Amino acid sequence: MTTLSSATDPPIYPAYCFKSSPTYNAWVKLTAADVHRLRAEPGYEGQRIYFSLNHPIRFVRLVGVIVAIDDINSKYTILTVDDSSGATIEVKIVRLAPEIANAVDCPSNTTVDNVNVVAELGVFEVVVDGCNLDIGTIIKAKCTISEFRGNKQLDLKRVSLVRSTDEEAQAWAEMAAFRQNVLAKPWVLSEEELKRIDKGLKVQRKKEKEYQRLKAEHEARKRARKEAWDQKMAEWEHKAEKKRRKEEAIMNYGAL
């Protein structure tokens, strides 16, 4: 299997171009070894954006066999996945707090709707679509990328079971095709595309500026109405107090 080289990485386009990338908003089909090779770039720290060549990547699809299931604590469960790429990778399941998980409308006790973690005295199970995961189960996982103690880790967002060799072969074929057609070569924008993106950015900035102007006008009118109402209430309270004092004076005079 060929690897995704980073020896001659092309320049990174500005972040406002990323939406035009074939990888930025896609579940990028990678192997575990590929994920570990993704680069972080200065200026994107903490944004969970990584790069292969100059492709910006946020979301990953991984297919592999579970080789370990670990109950870390009441918040996290870790699946270790091996996809025969020469590396394994940890896939983290985030468990919900009991007060959230026990709500009537909550579909599961994790942040993934079809995944439940059963952790009771003497029992620990991870259940996907009603089926218990076990060592040897093959899964198709869609994840975001994070790091733990300097190592890449995947945060599970969606998952399904791979139930046949045909389905697994298809997944590998899709990954190979995506690698060859997209990831194996740099992402290149033509001058025309860059001009279109720049024009779109200017239009968006103009819309945002107009939105902020209208919002400011709305807030100003809202403040003016509140000030007018407050003034009206103050005048009413002043008149009411004046009337009360007048009536009180009359009553006191009658008492004399």
From TrEMBL:
CDD domains: RPA2_OBF_family
Disordered, as annotated region: 225-256
InterPro entries xrefs: NA-bd_OB-fold, Stn1_N
Basic and acidic residues: bias regions: 225-240
Acetylation is among the record's keywords: no
GO cellular component labels: chromosome, telomeric region
Keyword RNA-binding: no
Subcellular location: Chromosome, Telomere
Domain of life: Eukaryota
Protein name, as recorded: CST complex subunit Stn1 N-terminal domain-containing protein
Species the sequence originates in: Glonium stellatum
